[in-house]
Amino acid sequence: NLMKKILITGGAGNIGASLFNKLINNKNYFIYVLDNFSTGRKDNLNLTGKENFKIFNSDINNFKELKKIFQNNSFNYIFHYAATVGVQRTQNNPLEVLKDIEGIKNILNLTLDKDIERIFFSSSSEVYGEAIEIPQNELTTPLNSRIPYAIVKNVSEAFLKSYNKVYGTKYTILRFFNTYGPLQNEEFVISKFVKQALNNENLTIYGDGKQTRSFLYIDDNIDFTIKLLENNLLINETVNVGSDIEISIIELSKKIIKITNSDSKIIFSPPLLEGDMLKRLPDISKMKKNYSNELIKL
């Protein structure tokens, strides 16, 4: 049987569902989606006319549920993308966030006796914390993460590397920087600004708006990841997945108002107490070396 079986945890979220929607068109793949639908949505998944999929409504941190799924199904690849996400949510529910450490342990322990070719893990630019150096490099930049969300990503990376050392489990750690696209929910800055601008509502900026980010369009994220999958690239490595074009939040808001031809005004709110880094910019030379496309410009 040449059909590759792929499990995507958090497969109904922004990045997980976008990955599903691209992979599902390949008849050689059978895609399993696991999601507890706390933030993921079933209508993110393009299921029309498709048969090569199965959906589990389940929680990654529940070992008993997960064990049953692993006993009854086999997977060649796992994309472990399930996580508690969103700045407000992760800061208001730190214990929920810390539970996600169980998720990575569950996945790793349940795949030990299985013939899994690779686990792809969605880490985050958050592991770098407040920028110690710019651009942020996978190997040389110190990880300065302090908020629970970032610490969990950091701990999960350590689990993957340790299981690789002891058991030979293969992994690729994808450190995602801001990724935007049509499925993203409105807690995130671009989708929030676009919606506000289309409704001619005020765009709210926390702080002075001079904080910078770089934004990668979802198609680049997905195309790059699938390239790694299909060409066996970056096995047992860590890679920044993002754009190296820096933009301040104030520039971003002006650009969105202009593109949407909106009457929105920009208003300023006090800065967030934590989690709103001043700068974030990846060194993406490793990504570019393994990805020949021109990145889609914002």
General description of the model:
The longest helix has 20 residues, at 148-167. The chain has 9 helices and 13 strands. 39% of the residues are buried. It has helices at 14-23, 63-72, 87-92, 94-110, 148-167, 189-198, 218-230, 249-259, 285-289, and strands at 4-9, 29-35, 53-57, 77-80, 118-124, 171-176, 179-180, 203-206, 212-213, 216-217, 237-241, 247-248, 266-269. Helix content is 34%, strand content 19%. Helix 4 (94-110) packs parallel to helix 5 (148-167). A 7-stranded parallel β-sheet has the order 3-2-1-4-5-6-11, with helices on both faces. The protein has a two-stranded parallel ribbon with strand order 7-10. Strands 8-13 form a two-stranded parallel sheet. With 298 residues, it is an alpha/beta fold.
Write the layout of secondary structure elements.
Layout: E1 4-9, H1 14-23, E2 29-35, E3 53-57, H2 63-72, E4 77-80, H3 87-92, H4 94-110, E5 118-124, H5 148-167, E6 171-176, E7 179-180, H6 189-198, E8 203-206, E9 212-213, E10 216-217, H7 218-230, E11 237-241, E12 247-248, H8 249-259, E13 266-269, H9 285-289
Parallel strand pairs: 1-2, 1-4, 2-3, 4-5, 5-6, 6-11, 7-10, 8-13
Antiparallel strand pairs: 9-12
DSSP strand content:
15-25%
Distance between the termini: 42 Å
Largest sheet: 7 strands, parallel
On the 0-100 scale, what is the average pLDDT? 94
Reading side by side through the largest sheet, how are the strands ordered? 3-2-1-4-5-6-11
Shape: globular
Helix content: 25-40%
Low-confidence stretches: none
How many H/I helical runs? 9
Structural class: alpha/beta
**SSE pattern:** EHEEHEHHEHEEHEEEHEEHEH
Radius of gyration: 19 Å
Q: How many beta strands in the DSSP annotation? A: 13
